[in-house]
Amino acid sequence: MAAAAIELGLVDELRMFRNPIVVGGGTPFLPPVTEDLRLDMIETRTFGSRVIYERYRRVRDDSIDSVS
Question: Which of 1, 11, 14, 55 is 20 to 30 A distant from 42 in Cα terms?
Answer without folding.
Answer: 1
